[in-house]
Amino acid sequence: MRTLLPLSDAERHEYSDRERGIAVAISRKGSDRHVVDEYLDEIEQLCHTAGADIVLRIVQERERLDPATFVGKGKVIELQTLVAEYGAQFVIFDENLSPVQVRNLQQALGIKILDRSMLILDIFAKHARTIEAKTQVELAQLQYLYPRLTRLWTHLSRQYGGIGTKGPGETQIETDRRLIKERIAHLQRRLRDIEQQRRLQRQERASTFRFALVGYTNAGKSSLFNLITDANVRAEDQLFATLDTTVRRFTLPSGIEALLSDTVGFIRKLPANLVASFHSTLAEAVESDMLVHVADASHPALDHHIQTVEKTLATLGIEWKPRLLVLNKIDRIADRDQLTALREQYPSALLLSAMTGYNVHSLLRRMDQFILDDSTRLAALLPYSAMRELSFLYTNAIVESRQDTPDGIAIIVRIPRAHEPAIRATLRHLLQPVEPSFSQQ
After folding, report:
1. Domain that residue 24 falls in
2. Tell me: the pLDDT tens digits for 243-295?
3. Is residue 196 part of a domain?
4. What is the rounded distance in angstroms from the CA atom of residue 31 to the CA atom of residue 307?
5. DSSP strand E in 194-297: where?
6. pTM for the predicted model, two decimal places
7. Strand pairing of 323-328 and 350-351?
8. Residue 275 belongs to a domain with what CATH number?
9. Residue among 258, 255, 259 nearest 395 (CA)
């Protein structure tokens, strides 16, 4: 068991304005204890984001989980003493608990019992801003809480409040199961309508090349998004600061205009119903032409974060999409040997800093090159009266060469695949053969 020293009077005063909790994790026989500690570090970060502090961490070594209390009777008795000693207001477990385990632990300890999924859902409720995000979060909460609707939880949610009880935790738990099911059905219909609207919006943008930023939560996606698009998306050093997908138009060094979307971050042990609820939001990544996988190069669990994102992309069925790995936050790495090791371990990755702007132009050039590699060359002869069409070409294609001739403007362009249908439709009456010598330049 790993614990902290008992709190002093000064420390108790420091924690008085924030909820205090005890974090519990299980280390199975043969498992990597370092990974268990990483999970607990993440639980502490999640609690901090939710407005609470972990004052004690416990790791219990067990071969099998106790079906009644998760940790066994002896550990429950020990937790009763520790809850009183540390003045804890909740106990959070790094695994998902069954309804029976939650009920038994609440009866034994008399305080809130949370698990990782409940905490993540609470943070999502805290950060939801738009109607879509609030709908998605409420649906995920109700689907998760539905089998846990008991009179005991209703009593505790009213009595304690705080983290783990926002949104439906306060307003829906006391309703009966029939009303909860009706509410879930209503939210699902609302999300289908929202998804249909988003689908129409994406169809309108189908002629524009689309990039999507994906990655572990707090990897710096929003900061990079703001830097590239001159946007003002909320970017904070917190987990899940971004829930709503934002799409902005930006211009690449070649002059090509493209779209960039900032998506919700991923995390280990992300609740499956949360992924399902956020399907319409994640559709921006699903339907993008290229994924930019942003990872925090300074994080000690970088490898695990990258693996988690790869697994989540596979869950979404888009692991086949072309993507570029970007190792962000290298401004936080002062050790040159560590930077060298990163380059050797991830030779195809791009190291940059969204905070300082270092190497961001290299990222834009790589995005440019990806479009070029996925484009076709087209030669056209435009009359001098077709200035609007010429401007359209300069905006939506890459002009390789141009010659002003007595018959008009002979031009050779590279057209991104996404733009080709629109360009061919716009220039269909202007396309003419050009001299072979010019077309081969």
Report:
1. 9-122
2. 567 788 898 888 878 889 888 788 887 767 667 666 666 777 777 888 999 99
3. no
4. 18
5. 210-215, 246-251, 257-262, 290-296
6. 0.73
7. parallel
8. 3.40.50.300
9. 255
